[in-house]
Write a structure and sequence with these properties.
mainly alpha, 2 strands, 69% helix, 1% strand
């Protein structure tokens, strides 16, 4: 007798299919107005980088946060696609020889292996730029004020004071292990900033009041911390076949993590604490928040 499908998993997969269909259209060979041409080698590398699997968790958070607050689904899909372009750009660049030097991503050769290093750099650059194009485009049915708020929040989350800055700190950690506070700051920037943006972006799409925007932002911060703790635990306890990428990298490079500093039992307890805090933040929304609450538990319990 077959087990009944898990409603949350089905919803996550359904959203992923929608995001991937939109990304497929956005990364087609069709030249947009004011574009001169789309060089095929570069377009193919961008397409490969983005449409090679993945759970599409960040776009899912944008969509579900927007729906929680009454936002438009189609608009949230476009903002989610823009965020996925930024996330995938970061993976392409993180995998480069000058950065983490990885050969495998989502069970497939990384972009610089499948194409070449120069094309991988340009693919990452182009995906980052395209994200802001997607948000600003007329097809994203938002007021200029909301588009500006999204662009500013995404820029802050992905740049010097966010994800890129976190990667710089991560590289520095290979030479000198940071303190526990340093690790928390590094991870909040490198991993947490885009997850925080995903939840806050849903509130912006919905035109939510400042208080609700702050609440969703705080929820994103909590599940971002949980995501990184889960990732660090998986790096120790899982394997490359399950993860679709190399494991044991942090220990091999001498990088300090909260798991390495405090142990697996502490990390598992801290992970649960962050998830519980995240769930408590959504209490005012009652049953309407069921999907986002399930997402917090999914982040803690994921196996890859």
């Amino acid at each position: 007798m077959n087990a009944s499908p898990d409603p949350f998993s089905e919803r996550l997969k359904s959203n992923a299919r929608e995001i991937e269909a939109l990304l497929e259209a956005l990364l087609s060979k069709d030249v947009l107005s004011d574009e001169i041409a789309r060089p095929e080698s570069l377009r193919a590398a961008m397409h490969y980088a983005v449409l090679n699997g993945g759970k599409r968790l960040r776009p899912f958070l944008v969509i579900e946060s927007a729906l929680l607050l009454g936002g438009d689904r189609e608009t949230a899909l476009r903002v989610g696609a823009a965020l996925e372009c930024v996330h995938c750009y970061s993976l392409v660049h993180d995998d480069l020889p000058a950065m983490d030097n990885d050969d495998l991503r989502r069970g497939k050769p990384t972009v610089h292996i499948a194409f070449d290093e120069a094309t991988a750099i340009l693919a990452g650059d182009s995906l980052l730029t395209y994200a802001f194009d997607i948000i600003a485009a007329p097809e994203t049915a938002l007021s200029d004020a909301r588009k500006t708020a999204l662009i500013l929040a995404l820029a802050r989350g992905s740049g010097l004071g966010g994800m890129a800055g976190g990667q710089a700190l991560d590289l520095a950690a290979e030479k000198q292990a940071p303190s526990a506070d340093g690790i928390i700051a590094l991870q909040a920037m490198k991993t947490g900033a885009l997850i925080r943006f995903a939840c806050e972006a849903g509130a912006i799409v919905a035109g939510a009041a400042d208080g609700e925007r702050k609440r969703l932002r705080a929820f994103g911060e909590k599940i971002g911390l949980a995501f990184q703790l889960a990732d660090d635990l998986l790096d120790i306890t899982s394997d490359a076949e399950t993860m679709g990428k190399a494991t044991g990298k942090d220990a091999g490079r001498g990088k300090g993590t909260l798991v390495a500093l405090n142990g697996i039992a502490w990390a598992e307890a801290e992970l649960r604490r962050h998830v519980n805090d995240a769930v408590d933040l959504l209490a005012p929304y009652g049953e309407k928040a069921e999907t986002l609450i399930a997402t917090a538990y999914f982040i803690a319990d994921r196996k890859s």
